[in-house]
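User: My collaborator sent over this chain with a note saying "see what the structure looks like." That's all I know about it. Can you take a look?
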Amino acid sequence: EVQLVESGGGLVQAGGSLRLSCAGSGFAAAPFADYSIGWFRQAPGKERDLVATITRGSSTNYADSVKGRFTISRDNAKNTLYLQVNSLKPEDTAVYYCNVVPPVRKYWGQGTQVTVSS
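Assistant: Without extra context I'll predict from the sequence alone. Here is the result:
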Protein backbone atom coordinates (compact mmCIF):
# COMPACT_ATOMS: atom_id res chain seq x y z
CA GLU A 1 0.00 0.00 0.00
CA VAL A 2 1.33 3.41 -0.99
CA GLN A 3 2.23 5.75 1.85
CA LEU A 4 3.36 9.35 1.54
CA VAL A 5 4.82 11.03 4.61
CA GLU A 6 5.46 14.76 4.62
CA SER A 7 7.94 16.53 6.88
CA GLY A 8 9.97 19.70 7.20
CA GLY A 9 7.31 22.25 8.06
CA GLY A 10 7.59 24.77 10.85
CA LEU A 11 7.12 28.32 12.04
CA VAL A 12 9.16 30.92 10.17
CA GLN A 13 9.16 34.67 9.77
CA ALA A 14 8.16 36.29 6.52
CA GLY A 15 11.05 36.11 4.08
CA GLY A 16 12.31 32.86 5.54
CA SER A 17 12.85 29.47 3.93
CA LEU A 18 12.05 25.82 4.54
CA ARG A 19 12.68 22.55 2.75
CA LEU A 20 9.74 20.18 2.75
CA SER A 21 10.17 16.46 2.13
CA CYS A 22 7.76 13.73 1.09
CA ALA A 23 8.92 10.15 1.58
CA GLY A 24 7.09 7.56 -0.48
CA SER A 25 6.83 3.83 0.10
CA GLY A 26 4.76 0.86 -1.05
CA PHE A 27 4.87 1.62 -4.78
CA ALA A 28 4.35 -1.96 -5.93
CA ALA A 29 2.41 -1.64 -9.18
CA ALA A 30 4.82 0.90 -10.63
CA PRO A 31 7.92 2.54 -9.19
CA PHE A 32 7.88 6.01 -7.64
CA ALA A 33 9.90 7.25 -10.60
CA ASP A 34 7.06 6.49 -13.01
CA TYR A 35 4.64 8.91 -11.42
CA SER A 36 4.01 12.59 -11.89
CA ILE A 37 3.82 13.88 -8.34
CA GLY A 38 3.00 17.18 -6.73
CA TRP A 39 2.73 19.38 -3.68
CA PHE A 40 -0.64 20.69 -2.56
CA ARG A 41 -1.59 23.02 0.28
CA GLN A 42 -4.69 23.78 2.27
CA ALA A 43 -5.10 26.96 4.29
CA PRO A 44 -7.69 27.18 7.08
CA GLY A 45 -11.19 27.46 5.65
CA LYS A 46 -10.01 27.03 2.07
CA GLU A 47 -9.85 24.23 -0.47
CA ARG A 48 -6.75 22.18 -1.10
CA ASP A 49 -4.83 23.70 -4.02
CA LEU A 50 -2.11 22.40 -6.28
CA VAL A 51 1.18 24.23 -5.69
CA ALA A 52 3.75 22.49 -7.88
CA THR A 53 4.16 19.36 -9.95
CA ILE A 54 7.05 17.37 -11.38
CA THR A 55 6.69 14.74 -14.09
CA ARG A 56 8.52 11.46 -14.46
CA GLY A 57 10.82 13.31 -16.84
CA SER A 58 11.40 16.06 -14.22
CA SER A 59 9.45 18.77 -16.01
CA THR A 60 8.05 21.17 -13.46
CA ASN A 61 5.04 23.43 -13.19
CA TYR A 62 4.03 25.94 -10.51
CA ALA A 63 1.01 27.88 -9.37
CA ASP A 64 1.37 31.56 -10.24
CA SER A 65 1.38 32.49 -6.56
CA VAL A 66 4.61 30.59 -5.89
CA LYS A 67 6.56 30.95 -9.15
CA GLY A 68 10.08 32.16 -8.55
CA ARG A 69 9.91 31.34 -4.82
CA PHE A 70 9.27 27.59 -4.64
CA THR A 71 11.27 24.80 -6.29
CA ILE A 72 10.05 21.21 -6.60
CA SER A 73 12.51 18.35 -7.08
CA ARG A 74 12.64 14.60 -6.69
CA ASP A 75 15.17 11.91 -5.81
CA ASN A 76 13.86 8.70 -7.33
CA ALA A 77 16.62 6.61 -5.73
CA LYS A 78 15.24 7.65 -2.33
CA ASN A 79 11.56 7.72 -3.34
CA THR A 80 11.48 11.27 -2.05
CA LEU A 81 9.92 14.51 -3.26
CA TYR A 82 11.12 17.91 -2.09
CA LEU A 83 9.81 21.45 -2.05
CA GLN A 84 12.23 24.28 -1.37
CA VAL A 85 10.18 27.24 -0.24
CA ASN A 86 11.87 30.64 -0.16
CA SER A 87 10.76 34.23 0.43
CA LEU A 88 7.83 32.96 2.44
CA LYS A 89 4.78 35.16 2.91
CA PRO A 90 2.04 34.99 5.55
CA GLU A 91 -0.36 33.85 2.82
CA ASP A 92 1.78 30.73 2.34
CA THR A 93 0.58 29.52 5.75
CA ALA A 94 -1.09 26.15 5.20
CA VAL A 95 -0.79 22.42 5.64
CA TYR A 96 1.32 21.09 2.77
CA TYR A 97 0.63 17.64 1.29
CA CYS A 98 2.12 15.54 -1.47
CA ASN A 99 0.31 13.15 -3.77
CA VAL A 100 0.58 11.67 -7.22
CA VAL A 101 -0.95 13.71 -10.04
CA PRO A 102 -3.84 13.37 -10.52
CA PRO A 103 -4.22 12.78 -6.79
CA VAL A 104 -5.45 9.49 -5.36
CA ARG A 105 -7.74 9.94 -2.35
CA LYS A 106 -6.29 7.11 -0.29
CA TYR A 107 -2.72 8.40 -0.73
CA TRP A 108 -3.28 11.61 1.25
CA GLY A 109 -1.05 11.75 4.32
CA GLN A 110 -1.15 13.96 7.39
CA GLY A 111 0.70 16.82 5.74
CA THR A 112 3.20 19.18 7.29
CA GLN A 113 2.23 22.56 8.75
CA VAL A 114 3.91 25.71 7.48
CA THR A 115 3.20 28.86 9.44
CA VAL A 116 4.62 32.20 8.34
CA SER A 117 4.53 35.09 10.75
CA SER A 118 4.56 38.69 9.59
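A starting point for your reply to your collaborator: Residues 54 and 60 are 4 Å apart (CA to CA).
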